[in-house]
Amino acid sequence: MIKNNFMKVYYEVFFYTMKKEEVYIVGAGTYGEVMYELAELLGYTIEGFYDENDQKKGKTVMNSKVLGRLSELEEHDIKGKKFVIAIGKNSTRNELMDKINKFGGETPTLIHPSAIISPSAEIGKGVYIHANAYIWTKVKIGNHCIISPKVIIAHHTSVGKACLISTMSAVGASVTIENEVFIGMGSTIMTGVSCIGGNTTIGAGSVVIKDVDDYSVYAGVPAKRLRSI
């Protein structure tokens, strides 16, 4: 985990140290374009895309070529290089980041300059925090998470590994969100909820007022369990 310093100092250091570093983006779809813009904003040079769709190879996305499939790369092709994984599916993103790290590659954390992050928050590796997110006091965000624009995470909440919290969602205080949870756009996890179980999906616009089981789909106001995954 990385403990954040006063944010003005953090970003000054970040921009100077990260300028002109090269990065590759995995996923040449629309979210790949989003991550291209974020990485470029933070001073990276995008060297190209990787995508498992062979039909995209050689095409240009956001001024960078699609070089081929990440699955075709050997360990020596990955070691010492930086990769951004522009894939929304939590399990796939988590698997790819673990593979890259195992082979000696890096998965840098990218934080939009407009995000507000408490100096006491802890942010993991390979985390993407987008514009206008607000991360409160002593929040913990695990490795490989995506925090979308205008997400609010209240104080002392813990977000597990490889979660995705969608745009304009709000998470209350002292909630534990376990690994690989997907929270849909505009959802609310109320203060008083203790735990959101792992590998669970919360449907868009839901209001969660009670604890949530593992491997389940919840939706509605208030949110109810619809089915198991």
Account of the 3D structure:
By secondary structure, this protein is α/β, with parallel strands linked by helices. The protein has 2 domains: 2-108, Rossmann fold, CATH 3.40.50; 111-218, 3 Solenoid (UDP N-Acetylglucosamine Acyltransferase, domain 1). Helices cover 18% and strands 29% of the residues. It has an 8-stranded mixed beta sheet with strand order 7-10-13-16-19-22-24-25, with no helix packed on it. A 6-stranded mixed beta sheet has the order 1-9-12-15-18-21, with no helix packed on it. Strands 8-11-14-17-20-23 form a 6-stranded parallel beta sheet, with no helix packed on it. It is globular.
Mean pLDDT across residues? 93
- The CATH homologous superfamily of the largest domain is termed Hexapeptide repeat proteins
What percentage of amino acids are in beta strands?
25-35%
Q: What is the CATH architecture descriptor of the largest domain?
A: 3 Solenoid
Task: Choose one word for the global shape.
Answer: globular
SSE arrangement, N to C: EHEHEEEHEHEEEEEEEEEEEEEEEEEEE
| Number of beta-strand segments | 25
Termini separation: 30 Å
Q: How many domains make up the 3D coordinates?
A: 2
The CATH topology of the largest domain, please? Answer: UDP N-Acetylglucosamine Acyltransferase, domain 1
Going by helix content, strand content and strand pairing, the class is alpha/beta
Count helical runs: 4
How much helix, percentage-wise, in residues?
10-25%
What is the CATH domain class of the largest domain? Mainly Beta
Strand count, sense and barrel status of the largest sheet are: 8 strands, mixed
* Low-pLDDT ranges: 5-19
Rg over alpha carbons = 18 Å
* Cross-sheet strand order for the largest sheet: 7-10-13-16-19-22-24-25
